[in-house]
Amino acid sequence: MRIPYQEMINTFAIILAKHDFSPERAQKCAVLFAKSSLDGVASHGLNRFPQFLEMVRDGWINPDAEPDREFGIPVFERWNGHLGPGMLHAEFCMDRAIKMAKENGVGCVALNNTNHWMRGGNYGWQAASTGCIGICFTNTIPNMPAWGGSEPKLGNNPLVIAMPYKDEAVVLDMAMTQYSYGKMSAYLNKKSSMPYEAGFNEKGALTKNPAEVLALQLALPAGLWKGAGLSLMLDMIASVFSKGKATHQIGENGIEFGVSQFFCCLDMERCGLNKEKVDQHVQDVLEDIKSSKVFAVAEISYPGERSLRERRENLEKGIPVDPVIWDRLIATELLPDKKEKKK
After folding, report:
1. In terms of domains, do 226 and 134 share one?
2. Enzyme class, one word (predicted)?
3. Please, is 34 exposed, middle or buried when counting C-beta atoms within 10 Å of its C-beta (0-12, 13-18, 19+)?
4. Residue 339: its pLDDT value, please?
5. What percent of the chain has pLDDT over 90?
6. Which of 73-82, 194-203, 327-336 has the lowest mean pLDDT?
7. Residues identified as active-site
8. Which residues, in sequence order, are bridge partners of residue 172?
9. What are phi and psi of 145, to 5 degrees?
10. The domain containing residue 33 runs over which residues?
11. How many angstroms separate the CA atoms of 263 and 94, rounded?
12. How many CA atoms lie within 13 A of 142 on its CB side?
């Protein structure tokens, strides 16, 4: 089942307006959710949308909350998100980092007391579209064990690194777990095993069964002990500079809110770099990677390449959606008898 991109945006915007979002904020949120599905990341687009609405109804996300600046110097600012919509705050903070980078070559923003930013790659693409290298990361609820641990102590703390390239970008968007929880949930819904080991079961053995991993929140750190170490460092940097919560302080009854984030931009032109020469350099690097010999019939792709391919195809043909999720969303959120917002 495929849904046109603009139809998905319009549907999301109408539903968000029914949840007390202003027309402008509803539209911005809708675009960010739809972009995720457009690029083939439904786990943080359509599939995550119902959970987002539930958090709004339960009061964990304040539709009207705007970030406030708590501290600022020419190349660094600290903001408080007041538990507003995470994707709007993330887009705002990356925009602030871009503006500082355009003036000073580099700009950094730390954000406390915010919510899930959904697909972090959106903000990497945002930075790259302005000619900036973008780096951003967030901490999360404890959902990953320290290496050798048997309980979730670390967050999967997604990291995004974006490099402008011609009219596009090379964008790495990765969680510190081998698979994001959204991806594991998608496999669980399909009643399918993961392609590779995704985490640990109750006996401490590696498993491809997403149900076992999700039940205990024992996802496998990407890179084993290296991913666990990187998760810890990202958590400390985000929480220290934002003066916000660290992973061990996040979560109430398993609900993730009040996270800390960090955004950094470097403007290529302001840093004395020639765009044409940079594009040629990046092209040389990518061509060398893609010329690699392979063990089997496979294609070497660079970070973000598949997203670009999905984007072009889905703009032309419509965005693939899970019909069960889409139909349920329409039935429960667009009918007159939808449940009222909780107090």
Report:
1. yes
2. oxidoreductase
3. buried
4. 47
5. 92
6. 327-336
7. 44
8. 161
9. -80, 150
10. 1-58+308-343
11. 6
12. 17
